[in-house]
Design brief:
The structure holds 3 protein chains of 3 kinds.
Chain A lengths: L6 E4 L3 H10 L3 E4 L5 H6 L7 E4 L9 E3 L5 E4 L4 H6 L7 H6 L6 H6 L2 H7 L5 H8 L3 E5 L4 E5 L4 E3 L2 E2 L6 E7 L6 E9 L6 E10 L1 E2 L2 E2 L2 E6 L6 E2 L1 H8 L4 H5 L16 H22 L2
Parallel strand pairs in A: 1-3, 2-3
Antiparallel strand pairs in A: 4-5, 5-10, 6-7, 6-10, 8-9, 11-12, 12-15, 13-14, 15-16
Chain B lengths: L14 H5 L15 E7 L5 E7 L1 H4 L4 E6 L34 E2 L5 E7 L2 H8 L3 E6 L6 H4 L15 E8 L1 H10 L2 E12 L8 E7 L4 E6 L4 H13 L6 E4 L15 H12 L5 E4 L2 H7 L3 E12 L5 E13 L11 H5 L10 E10 L13 H19 L3 H8 L30 H12 L4 H10 L2 E11 L7 H8 L8 E7 L5 E5 L8 H13 L6 E4 L17 H28 L6 E4 L2 E4 L2 E7 H10 L11 E7 L8 E11 L5 E11 L6 H20 L30 E5 L17 H17 L14 H15 L1
Parallel strand pairs in B: 1-12, 10-11, 14-15, 18-19, 25-26
Antiparallel strand pairs in B: 1-5, 2-4, 2-6, 3-5, 7-15, 8-13, 9-10, 9-12, 13-14, 16-24, 17-18, 17-23, 20-21, 21-22, 24-25
Helix pairs in contact in B: 10-11, 10-19, 15-16, 16-17, 18-19
Chain C lengths: L2 E7 L2 E7 L5 H8 L18 E4 L2 E4 L12 E3 L12 H8 L9 H14 L5 H7 L11 H23 L1
Parallel strand pairs in C: 1-5
Antiparallel strand pairs in C: 1-2, 3-4, 3-5
Helix pairs in contact in C: 2-5
Classes of the chains: A alpha+beta, B alpha+beta, C alpha+beta.
The complex binds flavin-adenine dinucleotide (FAD) and FE2/S2 (inorganic) cluster (2 copies).
Chain lengths: 283, 800, 164
């Protein structure tokens, strides 16, 4: 199918892109196009103007920040992340990235697009939640940092404001005393997650885990931190027991592939599997 | 000497163009000043159309025309195969029109068409058409649709019933069920599938005002049949004024057999535009709403027999969902092609089937790969497993005890092959079922399954093994029999071939059949090369155009290799005979004294006196010296009506592992031993099996069309309809037994559908076997993670 | 508002004026008449439209033509060279990796991208790499076999090349 007509501008710089967004209420950015173009082809999205930021090299790539954290440019593709040696240290990324979409989608889809789109079943959000990432967003007038935990507000709805562009995502530096993993069950037709869980767990001191963070996607209205699971783990519960709290307080989604009961169940299974795999990586 | 390629795995002739981007599918064709058509489809599953306002659309840029149903003066699409038989002729037939006029019966029925200079403009204008609908209540489930109080689709079809058809001996079957020691009953759903050839449909209509002739390019399996149906039954134009061309077809699996509304739309649109070509290409989402679906049966099964495992009767009642209006041969599928082969490869003395064809607010249902036979195989193969479980017998052993013995062929089954009114019968031509099963069981390691199951349990998995000892009926079909069972089926089913031998001995073969990926250009060349003793490279095989190919009925029902090849062999025999007569003339010998060896025509006893095929062709083309009464040139046509169908069989074994925590099913091993008779090209045969198996596994585990109660297709795109992916399959292990078919000269049987017919039941049986420890007897498909997990949960609940 | 663009397609610079909404696949098929690249779906899933843009496999139905401006695009028509077919084309032919051929161009383009980064893939890696390419005809078996065979041929070819 064919998108409705629109105007197109290719941004020459981030500032150019921001200025164009500021000047035009009907403008939207396009990065890799892997989410927005399918919607436009079905005419479910009809932007008046597309501002193409795809070639802004300033937003591509992975670098280590002076404080040891890692910044991933918003336009870094999945394929680039898979190939990146710094990101190779994150177990949960090694698990997740090669299974997001397919070869072709990973060549174009970007991390910025994935979170800006705020698809409730997208994988990257769960991972960034578990990593306590920060999102850096800029408008024509200001730059701000949004903690990932307050970024997702609903299905396809985020804290991003009109006119803002995500410039980078900041991750904590890799640590040897932390294990992480990603485990998901896929909706077979779309390949998106029915339940995808990212877990980060710190080495035990005594009978307590050092830290525990669990991000869940595909299950609720938007990706979320399974705080009840984390509390249970911190309180000394076994992984199996803690996993039963995977959907506490969450309105669990239901569709033809997974109804509420099944999704609730597999969310818990994936939490358990992700936590076990993360713990196993601690050695 | 020319190498004889018959029976060899020759590389395909058609591939060079397809691997280099040189294929030519409908959407690849661009005609001068071609306009584009887009079709507006109903968002409601059931509604009256109060009015359609096209004025705004007509004023849009680039728009050439906007048509609604009343602008198209033709008949509704034809129904070529009413159920017939016991159901008699129906007076409740409702088929689609080119565009709906008064009401819509399913989500996606076409209501208006825009023709514009560009596809963009056509799509833009669709949005400007305003349709005032009066929504009506909907029903999507065939069984529910027949219940009192269900929404009614058509005034002429009370309780939405298209037909209530029976076959077999009711009294005898009832008595056998009543008398049996063991009767197993099960409700079985064979879910609706969306066929999904990778190329959607599409057509280009072209009217020539100068000659009053129509041409249509279509992605069709049956260009000749479409000419008959469109010209005679729909448009009322002379048959010779319509030319149907089917270029490269990107897969079809049955969906492209039928007469579709869009054919009429593009032809009429071209006429209204004074002869501009009009192209319509189906989008994938549209394909889910405007091209036929498959299967969709609800069956009440009873299987009866003794504790020793002698099956005495099978009785079924099946509700067959046919959709909102009938597709071309929709009613023929769940009747003749299903119920008449229900007893499979077993000597079951009593079989009775009642099939109720039903209208619902869904896309029409018609033949999808296997068409009726996968449904039958699924019922009987599940039935065998259910019965084996009930009496505590190994399912392989139960099958062994009930196979039709190899000395019983030709065999007339009691489920209706021979009970067609009119008396024309077909028989199961040949078979030897046990060796195929034994081979498959050995390959699968069937004897060691208990150990494998225990080992899987240690990994948190439940392992299951399932068999399917299928037969299928191929090579449709003797025209007499089709006429008798169809009662109103408007077409015969013979096939045709024409062979022309040019001056230099190069051969052009034109066929009435129509490939969709099966490699006909290769296999026919192998057959004819063998018959005439010439290299394959000297032969080109053409098809697909009603102008220039002999009348033929197209390709479906795994008929091409047996019926089409026989026509080709007969045409080659005529060529050979004439060449022999001319050789006698050239060599001054009597015809009886000419012996033919490959391409050499020799005088018996004087091996030096000989002419080659090429020499004869050359001389006969020039005809300087043709004897009195002999026509110049080698050009012969044969038409062939088969005396019987062919009956491939085999055993497929699937091994699955079920993850207890999520219900996820993993297909870990798949073994298939098929007997498709002799093979023209074993490589192509294997390819057909691979693809068929994958489609059948898709049905067992992942695929299913899901409708909401309001008639919305919830699995309305590839985002929600699970197309099988490469990573979901193990390497398929294939082997064979060979029992040549006595029906045709090369002993082939057909293989286009066998894989799809066999594999669904094998995998479903395997999953049900894996779930036995949970006390689960039967679980309906698709056996998705959710379905399997829920079944395990409820049985755990019940056991607790 | 038409946009002017210039793309190198299979080594030749081609120009076009297109609406911004023109998809790359339409540019290739309709404007450049290279119809080997197919459209099999409308939800970016089937991979029939796969081409290489600047050496990477992408779904050309999920990219705007204007996004490819200035890029190097390779389609199935650009795979064979003067010396003959690409080893993947040869292998698909020899191992019956295609039936109707509709998925084939996209499948070959994805496979070519795989072999460029992984010259000796396992069957599992091959199956994973073609997750975004649907084939309804072959059950994938002969496609996997063909890709494996092409990989072997290309490895043999490159060692031969290195030796000479
Ligand atoms: C076939 C297919 C399969 C897929 N499978 C998966 C899967 O398994 N798991 C999964 O998680 N995802 C999956 N995806 C989605 C994919 O991950 C996303 O489409 C992709 O990452 C989005 O990035 P993009 O650059 O293509 O975004 P675009 O499509 O370009 O943009 C998406 C949205 O984000 C906005 N946007 C983009 N970049 C920025 C920015 N820097 N700042 C502000 N706004 C921005 C755009 O305006 C738009 O609204 C799949 C997609 C396809 C087509
Ligand atoms: S046409 Fe591009 S993915 Fe299907
Ligand atoms: S060969 Fe037909 S879809 Fe792959």
């Amino acid at each position: 199918m064919i998108p409705a007509a629109f105007d197109y501008v290719r941004a020459t710089s981030l500032d150019d892109a921001l200025a164009r967004l500021a000047a035009d209420d009907g403008a939207k950015v396009i990065a890799g196009g892997q989410s927005i173009l399918p919607l436009m082809k079905l005419r479910l999205a009809r932007p008046e103007t597309l501002v193409d930021i795809g070639r802004l090299t300033e937003l591509q790539g992975v670098r280590r920040l002076p404080d040891g954290r890692v910044a991933v440019g918003a336009l870094t593709t999945y394929a680039a992340m898979i190939a990146d040696p710094i990101l190779g240290h994150y177990g949960l990324l090694r698990d997740a990235l090669p299974n997001i979409g397919d070869t072709q989608v990973r060549n174009r889809g970007t991390i910025g697009g994935a979170i800006a789109h705020a698809d409730p079943a997208s994988d990257m959000p769960a991972i960034l939640l578990a990593l306590d990432a920060e999102v850096v967003a800029r408008s024509a007038t200001a730059e701000r940092t949004i903690p990932i935990t307050s970024f997702f507000e609903g299905a396809f709805d985020s804290a991003l404001r009109p006119g803002e562009i995500i410039t980078e995502i900041r991750l904590p530096g890799g640590r040897d005393d932390v294990g992480s993993a990603y485990s998901a069950i896929e909706q077979p037709a779309s390949g998106y997650s029915i339940a995808g869980v990212a877990a980060v767990i710190g080495a035990r001191s005594g009978d307590r885990w050092g830290l525990c963070a669990v991000g869940v996607t595909g299950v609720g209205e938007h990706p979320y931190r399974a705080t009840a699971v984390e509390q249970a783990i911190r309180g000394g519960a076994s992984v199996a027991d803690a996993a039963t709290h995977a959907t506490d307080g969450i309105t669990v989604a239901s569709d033809i592939h997974a109804d509420r009961e099944y999704r609730t169940h597999v969310a818990a299974v994936q939490v358990r599997r992700a936590l076990e795999a993360a713990a196993a990586r601690l050695g | 000497m020319t190498t004889d390629m018959l029976g060899k795995s020759v590389k395909r002739v058609e591939d060079r163009r397809l691997i280099t981007g040189g294929g030519r599918y409908v959407d690849d064709i661009k005609l001068q000043s071609m306009a584009y058509c887009a079709i507006l489809r109903s968002p409601y599953a059931h509604a009256n159309i109060r009015s359609i306002d096209t004025s705004a659309a007509k004023a849009m840029p680039g728009v050439l025309d906007v048509m609604v149903g009343t602008d198209i003066p033709y008949n509704p699409l034809p129904l070529a195969w009413p159920a017939g038989g016991s159901a008699g002729l129906q007076n409740n037939v409702n088929t689609p029109r080119a565009l709906a006029t008064d009401s819509v019966k399913w989500t996606g029925e076409g209501v208006a068409a825009v023709i514009a200079e560009t596809p963009e403009q056509a799509f833009d204008a669709l949005e400007a058409i305003v349709v005032d609908y009066e929504p009506l209540p909907t029903v999507v489930d065939a069984e529910k649709a027949t219940q009192p109080g269900a929404p009614q689709l058509h005034e002429n079809a009370p309780n939405n019933i298209v037909f209530d058809w029976t076959v077999g001996d009711k009294a005898g079957t009832d008595a056998a069920v009543d008398a049996a020691e063991v009767v197993v009953r099960q409700r079985i759903v064979n879910q609706r599938l969306i066929p999904n050839p990778m190329e959607t449909r599409g057509d280009i209509g072209l009217y020539n005002p100068g000659t009053d002739e129509y041409t249509i390019w279509m992605s069709s399996q049956t260009p000749h049949i479409q000419r008959i149906l469109l010209a005679i039954f729909v448009m009322g134009i002379p048959e010779h004024k319509l030319r149907c061309i089917s270029p490269d077809v990107g897969g079809a699996f049955g969906t492209k057999i039928f007469c579709y509304a869009d054919y009429v739309v593009v032809l009429h649109a071209s006429k209204r535009l004074g002869g501009r070509a009009v192209k319509w290409i189906e989008s994938r989402r549209e394909n889910y709403q405007s091209t036929i679906h498959g299967r969709d049966h609800i069956t009440y099964l009873e299987i009866a027999g003794s504790k020793q495992g002698e099956i005495s009767a099978v009785r079924v009642k099946t509700y067959a969902n046919l959709g909102g209006r009938l597709s071309t041969i929709g009613p023929g599928i769940p009747t003749t092609l299903y119920a008449r082969v229900l007893s499979g490869c077993y000597k079951i003395p009593n079989v009775f089937a009642e099939v109720i064809g039903v209208y619902t607010n869904t896309v029409f249902v018609d033949a999808y790969r296997g068409a009726g036979r996968p449904e039958a195989t699924y019922v009987i193969e599940r039935a065998m497993d259910l019965f084996a479980n009930e009496i505590g017998m190994d399912p392989a052993e139960l099958r062994r005890r009930n196979f039709i013995a190899p000395d019983k062929f030709p065999y007339e089954n009691p489920s209706g092959l021979g009970t067609a009114s009119g008396g024309a019968k077909i028989y199961i031509d040949s078979g030897n079922y046990e060796p195929a099963m034994d081979k498959a069981l050995a390959m699968a390691g069937y004897a060691g399954m208990d150990k494998a199951k225990a080992e899987a349990r240690r990994r948190g998995k439940y392992l299951g093994v399932g068999l399917s000892t299928y037969i299928e009926v191929c090579g449709v079909a003797p025209s007499k029999w089709i006429g008798a069972v169809g009662e109103g089926w408007g077409a015969a089913m013979w096939e045709s071939a024409n062979i022309k031998v040019h001056l230099t001995g190069k051969v052009v073969v034109t066929m009435g059949t129509q490939p969709q990926g099966q490699g006909h250009e290769t296999t026919y060349a192998q057959v004819i090369g063998h018959e005439l003793g010439i290299p394959m490279e000297d032969i080109v095989v053409q098809h697909s155009d009603t102008q220039g190919t002999p009348m033929g009925y197209g390709s479906y029902g795994s008929r091409t290799s047996s019926v089409g090849s026989t026509a080709a062999i007969r045409a080659a025999a005529k060529i050979r005979e004439k060449a022999r007569r001319y050789a006698a003339h050239m060599l001054e010998a009597s015809v009886e004294d000419i012996e033919v060896d490959g391409a050499e025509y020799r005088v018996k006893g004087s091996p030096d006196k000989k002419k080659t095929f090429q020499e004869i062709a050359f001389a006969l083309d020039l005809a300087f010296d043709a004897p009195e009464g002999m026509e110049p040139y080698l050009d012969e046509t044969a038409y062939y009506d088969t005396p019987n169908c062919t009956w491939p069989f085999g055993t497929h074994v699937a091994i699955v592992e079920v993850d207890e925590a999520t219900g996820h099913v993993d297909l870990v091993k798949y073994v298939a031993v098929d007997d498709v008779g002799n093979k023209i090209n074993p490589m192509i045969v294997d390819g057909q099996l691979h693809g068929g198996i994958a489609q059948g596994v898709g049905q067992a585990l992942w695929e299913g069309a899901v409708y909401g109660d309001d008639g919305q297709l919830l699995s309305g795109s590839m985002l929600d309809y699970a197309m099988p992916r490469a990573a979901w399959f193990p390497h398929l292990e294939l082997d064979e037994t060979v029992t040549p078919s006595p029906v045709n000269p090369i002993g082939v049987k057909g293989v286009g559908e066998a894989g799809a017919i066999a594999s669904t039941a094998a995998v479903a049986n395997a999953v049900n076997d894996a779930l036995k420890p949970f006390g689960i007897r039967h679980l309906d498909m698709p056996l998705t993670s959710q379905a399997v997990w829920k079944a395990m949960q409820s049985s755990k609940g019940a056991q607790a | 508002m038409a946009a002017h663009l210039s793309v190198t397609v299979n080594g030749t610079v081609r120009e076009a004026d297109v609406e911004p909404r023109r998809l790359l696949v339409q540019l290739i098929r309709e404007d450049f008449d290279l119809t080997g690249t197919h459209v099999g779906c409308d939800t970016s899933q089937c991979g029939a439209c796969t081409v290489h843009v600047d050496g990477k496999a992408v779904k050309s139905c999920t990219m705007l033509a204007v996004q490819a401006d200035g890029s190097d695009v390779t389609t199935i028509e650009g795979m064979a060279s003067a010396e003959g077919l690409h080893p993947l084309q040869t292998a698909f032919w020899e191992h019956h990796g295609l039936q109707c051929g509709f998925c084939t161009p996209g499948m070959i383009m994805t496979a070519a991208a795989l072999l460029a980064s992984n010259p000796d893939p396992t069957d599992d890696e091959i199956r994973h790499a073609i997750a975004g390419n649907f084939c309804r005809c072959t059950g994938y078996q002969n496609i996997v076999i063909a890709i494996r065979a092409a990989a072997a041929a290309m490895r043999a070819g490159s060692t031969a090349g290195a030796a000479s």
